[in-house]
Amino acid sequence: MLQAVPTSSELDDLVQTMQRMSAGIGQVVSGRPELVQTTLAVLLAEGHLLLEDVPGVGKTTLAKALARSIDCQVGRIQFTPDLLPSDLTGVNIFRSQTHEFEFRPGPVFAHIVIGDEINRASPKTQSALLECMQEAQATVDGHSYPLPRPFLVVATQNPVEMEGTYPLPEAQRDRFMARLTVGYPSIESELGMLDMQESSDPLVDMRPVTDAAHVARLVDTTRRLYAAPGVKRYVVDLVTATREDQGLRLGASPRAAIQLLRAAKGVAAMAGRDHVLPDDVQQLAEPVLAHRLLPSTESRLSGRGTDAIVRDIVARIPLPTPVPASRASRAIG
């Protein structure tokens, strides 16, 4: 049965909370509002986020700022080549006093899990996250343990050309709702960063603006946004086009279509709307789809990446008509 769309008061609460979170994170990660907006959209969509770029551009800082803006449990994992799956999920320890095994949970048992340099671990260890990210549970010695809600993995990785890195398996990349490239800040933003962090770390002064229970309610509110049949068909058309494109040897999965729609709902919710527009889908198409695709040999040799292919697909797939009428939007500042 279809749920009722969110009320005005629910949307107002969501917009105001996201504005406070955006302002707090923006004090730490300055000059990149679009990066912060997509991060919060993934949070509202209850997805997982992959941050990819060279060292030192603020990937871990963004992840820590997001975690500090919420009063919740935070797990931290430093991925290394010798990391074992049990270092993530936890182990059973035998207690001689009781002659019983006691489960000692690992760092994945948190609301937000920050994974540093995920592609420095072996594929076996990376794969330990697959069940956690898809089913929100971890199985240890045949027993499944539920993870707290909301559950969000924010992982960072260096480009695969850098020394000591392993490429993420396709199955793992498909679990991440979006991949973002942080990039270098503008000259003005970098000058402001020097002034701000010359004598102190702004992360130290960050205070939570909400808690985990409130975020879980906002996630439920976001999922109840209305998506017209035409918008859903537009999502499917984009995903189908990736499977038929001659420049790709692997297109997007059905999971990608689901996550693209959910992420678009996150953007629409932050704009104060109770429905999704095709523009929301277009805005998230590249970060949600590009990292799941594999280019053909010809595309690789010509230097044409999956990001460019997704942009071309978005440009040529016609928009659905008619487009649903919009409420007065209250965009995040």
TrEMBL record:
Gene3D superfamilies reported in the protein's UniProt record: Magnesium chelatase subunit I, C-Terminal domain (1.10.8.80), P-loop containing nucleotide triphosphate hydrolases (3.40.50.300)
Ranges of residues in domain AAA+ ATPase: 45-186
Lineage: superkingdom: Bacteria
Signal peptide boundaries: none
InterPro entries registered for this protein in UniProt: AAA+_ATPase, ATPase_AAA-3, CbbQ/NirQ/NorQ/GpvN, ChlI/MoxR_AAA_lid, P-loop_NTPase
Pfam family, one: AAA_lid_2
PANTHER family to which the protein is assigned, alphabetical: METHANOL DEHYDROGENASE REGULATOR (PTHR42759:SF5), MOXR FAMILY PROTEIN (PTHR42759)
Protein name, entry field: MoxR family ATPase
